[in-house]
Design goal:
About 80% of the residues lie in helices and about 0% in strands. By secondary structure, it is mainly alpha-helical. The longest helix is centred in the middle third of the chain and has 40 residues, at about 10-45. The protein is rod-shaped and about 100 Å long.
Length: about 70
């Protein structure tokens, strides 16, 4: 193998290419994160008026009690 001398300019070019590749990857990640943020915003809007399951089950139980009282009174 032949002994090659690497200059400072060669090293600077290698480092620059490495940083360019990293920047491209970060740009792709930023784009994906922006899409995810948009999706999460839409999900939050949809969930804004949602009743939670425990609240629904408690309400359902109360309705059953009222229905049973109504049937018993008839």
């Amino acid at each position: 193998m032949e002994n090659q001398n690497t200059t400072i300019d060669d090293l600077a070019g290698m480092v620059q290419r490495g940083f360019s590749e990293v920047n491209e990857k970060f740009d792709k990640i930023d784009t994906r994160l922006d899409k995810i943020d948009g999706r999460l915003d839409r999900i939050e809007i949809k969930l804004d008026n949602v009743v939670y399951r425990k609240e629904f089950e408690a309400l359902l139980e109360r309705v059953k009690i009222l229905e049973n009282k109504e049937l018993a009174a008839s």
